[in-house]
Design a protein that fits this description.
The chain is an alpha+beta fold and 852 residues long. Among the domains are: 1-216, tricorn interacting facor f3 domain (Immunoglobulin-like), CATH 2.60.40; 325-463, Neutral Protease, domain 2 (Orthogonal Bundle), CATH 1.10.390.10. Helix content is 43%, strand content 19%. It has 29 helices and 27 strands. It has an 8-stranded mixed sheet. Helix 12 (568-583) packs parallel to helix 14 (607-623). 47% of the residues are buried.
């Protein structure tokens, strides 16, 4: 058949089929749930063979060739849609079962007429120019990031998670580049200035897990269990490299061994591989054999804080956990994307727990998850853990604090409800039953119900299918120095009346003694008989163990004894609860809570707790104190923090307090003091500052005053080329010239200026810093107007990052009015984007009531 006849034949078929097209084959943009369900019934045994010719120059086109093999079976003989979200003219040639056909594209799909297909095995060959949207091409390296539905922006494919396939990849790259992919490298063929890498066929993967990276990377390899662990990186700091490489390999191996032991399933993929990406827009991405990781999180100097060390361990354990949870067993549809994330976080917590340091594990879990879960769940835009999804093009909006931080709390409650042994049996059965396949949350619940008498459906409705948290109150009466009545009640912070069934503790503090009782089956209102006849305590603390979830009551008798609470977890839980209650207008007001927290900076010696306290101090100071109040209090607060830093003994604690001082300083003497530290590179005694610390200090100074050539000097100090480029991108946002800042912001309307999403997010934080807000507030309307475009073109975390970096520290009535007017005028905005706006502007909303 020649091309002209094929084109005419296709047009006739399309004209006929459009009149009687089944609902699942109507051409809609994206990948709809109905399209995905239809394709799942007619396609299987999919295999992609892909070749990309990647020029070293990032602005040159990538020529590509693809072969798709699949088995097809359809009685209705409807059109087959192949996903490709790029300009149709990038498809140069299509051959279906050895027959050339015309290229017909509609609404981000290549249309394959059933007349060209046959029952059973089919073969499609496509010559095309690869799309760039998900290739992350930098000056001398690139990496793919296809989650959730971005494989289709690069090559034609069936881009849905339940059509797992085998991928065979070859790459032609510059001869001085290195490459990595999901499969093992089988050979490398030199041809002039280029080389072609051939990789083995992968294990079965969904399209979002297919990945490769190439560029000028250093390569470290460690032999383990007759296989290589390959690690590509671009870090140039020798101290960080020497201090971090052994730790990265050890943490990776430790995680693999833990999950093998816990699940009873050997490592499920053919190879081990990692890539450290500078300015990576995620923390990590779990591509089997080519795990992408944030460079800054991995490479630490020897003075790294406990928080940094824990974060590195958590990151690696999280991504390795995905090999079982998400990669081996993948969600059927992205409405259950939270399942892979909750298990990765929950299992990472287990992998990093030490039997010798149970309190340390509990503290890490508490400080890692609760503040972030609450930050979203307290807002009017809070989403449930499990969210509906009608089209994969909206899947990125499902990600956020709820699935990463509330869901692990929920999973811990489920484990406590079932018992640890029963929970483990159920999860392991689930993994074995659905290995190399797909499953949904109801599939797991059905298995778990076999191991517990508890009513998981009712429990699931409140914890998983609905947003929000409970607000708990209590009443206590004393008679003759003993508790004579003790009752608790809970209500939702908002929404319909419901009860969170959960386990939490109530702790009674006495001189030299703490007596706790556990509530395992909380009701909307209940008496607590076990509290009766106890002696009247010094004070009572709810959720001292941090295992519960909600806004807990505060016994005000705790205030003068707060920093004398011996248990580290209980102190952290108290800090979190005091802050959450302040936001709800209960107990201490913002200024009083700032004073209380600041008074503890000398006494709190645990790094994670000190990090928590200083974070809350910064939040209260910038978000919930009026500018005039800040100006009045600045000098005293600066002095208090500096003196606490000098009093602390641990170098890491001193550094945490130095960073706190750097965050809040405003007075002229403080500015001069920090400038001298930056200029002479002489930090306070026992405070170790490295290049990245002087960079952040330079940014902080540039916000306050137009120091001559400060930013230019800091740029020249930076040696690593990737960090140098990041600094140069952020610099205009810090300029004292409002015209320069305006040009920077206006430039973000163009997609090419937003490609480094991590750096853009940081730049927006400085652009909208409270000290710059009078000049930045006019950008807020445009920021909101760009949101649909940001969601369409950016990676999964960028819409939230875009909004949070812009609105996160505003408190003015005029800024709040901008949000209200926008929401009123854009009622047709997608619901998930409305939720993001409500989530990221919640502090602004609360500031209208809190700021005096």
């Amino acid at each position: 058949m020649n091309y002209k006849f094929a084109a005419f034949f296709l047009l006739v078929l399309i004209a006929v089929s459009c009149r009687n097209r089944a609902p699942e084959t109507i051409m809609r943009k994206g990948v709809t749930d109905s399209l995905a369900a239809h394709r799942k019934t007619i396609l299987k045994d999919i295999r992609y063979t892909l070749h990309f010719q990647v020029p070293a120059e990032k602005d040159k086109e990538i020529q590509a060739k693809e072969t798709i093999r699949f088995s097809y079976s359809s009685k209705k003989r409807n059109l087959l849609q192949l996903d490709f979200k790029e300009a149709p003219d990038k498809i140069k040639k299509i051959i279906i079962n050895n027959q050339p056909v015309a290229v017909v594209c509609e609404n981000e799909h290549i249309i394959i007429e059933s007349a060209f297909l046959k029952e059973g095995a089919n073969l499609i060959t496509i010559d095309f120019i690869a799309g760039n949207a998900a290739l992350n091409r930098r000056d001398d390296f690139m990496y793919t990031l296809f989650v959730p539905d971005r494989a289709r922006t690069v090559f034609p494919c069936f881009d849905q998670p339940d059509l797992k396939a085998v991928f065979q990849l070859s790459l032609t790259i510059s001869k001085d580049w290195t490459g990595i992919a999901n499969g093992v490298l089988t050979d490398s063929v030199l041809n002039g200035g280029y080389k072609t890498l051939h990789f083995a066929a992968t294990d079965k993967l969904p399209t979002y897990l297919f990945s490769f990276a190439a560029g000028r990377f250093n390569r470290a390899v460690q032999k383990w269990r007759n296989k290589d662990i390959e690690f590509l990186y671009r870090e140039t700091d020798k101290e960080k490299i020497n201090n971090s490489l052994p730790a990265v390999f050890d943490l990776y191996k430790k995680s693999v061994l833990f999950y093998e032991q816990w699940t009873g399933i050997p490592f499920p993929f053919q190879k081990h591989g990692m890539v450290a990406i500078p300015d990576f827009q995620f923390g990590g991405m779990e591509h089997p054999g080519a795990v992408l990781l944030q460079n800054a999180s991995l490479f630490l100097n020897k003075e790294a804080t406990e928080g940094q060390i824990n974060s590195r361990a958590q990151l690696l354990a999280h991504e390795v956990a995905h090999m079982w949870f998400g990669d081996l067993v993948t969600m059927s549809w992205f409405t259950d994307v939270w399942m892979k994330e909750v298990f990765a976080n929950f299992m990472a917590d287990k992998a990093n727990a030490s039997p010798k340091n149970k309190q340390g594990f509990a503290l890490q879990f508490l400080t890692t998850h609760l503040p972030y879960a609450y930050a979203t769940d307290r807002t009017p835009g809070a989403n449930p853990i499990r969210q509906p999804l009608d089209n994969l093009e909206n899947a990125g909006t499902l990600y956020g604090n709820i699935i990463y931080h509330k869901a692990p709390v929920m999973m811990r409650q489920l484990e406590q409800l079932m018992g640890a042994a029963a929970f483990q049996k159920g999860v392991c059965e689930y993994l074995k039953k659905y290995s190399y396949g797909n499953a949904a949350w109801p599939d797991l619940i059905r298995i778990m119900e076999q191991y517990t008498p508890a009513d998981l459906n009712t429990w699931n409705t409140v914890w998983v299918n609905e947003p929000g948290r409970p607000v708990v109150d209590y009443a206590v009466e004393y008679e003759n120095g003993q508790v004579s009545n003790f009752s608790i009640r809970q209500k939702p912070e908002y929404g319909r009346s419901r009860t969170w069934r959960q386990s939490f503790d109530i702790s009674f503090y006495y001189p030299g003694l703490v007596r706790s009782l556990i509530v395992n089956d909380s009701l909307s209102s209940q008496e607590i008989p076990r509290a009766l006849q106890r002696k009247q305590p010094l004070f009572i603390q709810f959720n001292a163990s941090g295992t519960g979830y909600g806004v807990w009551p505060v016994d005000t008798a705790m205030y003068p004894r707060l920093f004398k609470i011996e248990d580290n977890v209980s102190r952290a839980s108290a800090y979190i609860n005091l802050y959450e209650n302040m936001l709800n207008g209960r107990y201490k007001k913002a200024e009083a809570l700032l004073d209380l927290f600041a008074s503890g900076l000398r006494q709190e010696t645990v790094e994670l707790n000190l990090q928590l306290l200083t974070g809350y101090i910064g939040s209260i100071y910038w978000n919930f104190l009026a500018p005039a109040t800040r100006k009045k209090r600045a000098g005293k607060l600066e002095q208090l923090i500096w003196e606490a830093m000098q009093k602390q003994k641990s170098p890491n604690s001193k550094k945490i307090l130095f960073k706190c001082y750097q965050d809040v300083f405003e007075t002229v003497p403080a500015q001069q003091q920090l400038y001298e530290i930056w200029h002479l590179q002489k930090p306070p005694a026992s405070v170790v500052l490295k290049e990245e610390d002087y960079t952040s200090l330079a940014f902080a100074l540039a916000l306050r005053k137009a120091w001559p050539d400060l930013l230019q000097q800091q740029l020249q100090r930076i040696e690593n080329p990737d960090r140098k480029k990041r600094f140069a991108l952020i610099m205009p946002a810090l300029s004292f010239d409002t015209a320069v800042r305006a040009r920077f912001f206006n430039g973000l309307s163009r997609r090419e200026n937003r490609t480094n999403e991590s750096a853009v997010g940081t730049a927006l934080l400085y652009l909208h810093h409270p000290l710059r807000q009078p000049s930045a507030e006019p950008y807020l309307t445009k920021t909101l107007e760009l949101l649909p475009e940001i969601q369409k073109t950016g990676d999964i975390f960028f819409p939230g990052n875009w909004l949070q970096s812009s609105f996160g520290s505003y408190q003015s009535k005029s800024a709040y009015a901008i949000v209200q007017v926008f929401m009123q005028n854009h009622k047709d905005l997608k619901e998930n984007l409305k939720q993001k706006i409500l989530q990221c502007t919640d502090n602004l909303r609360r500031a209208q009531l809190i700021v005096q």
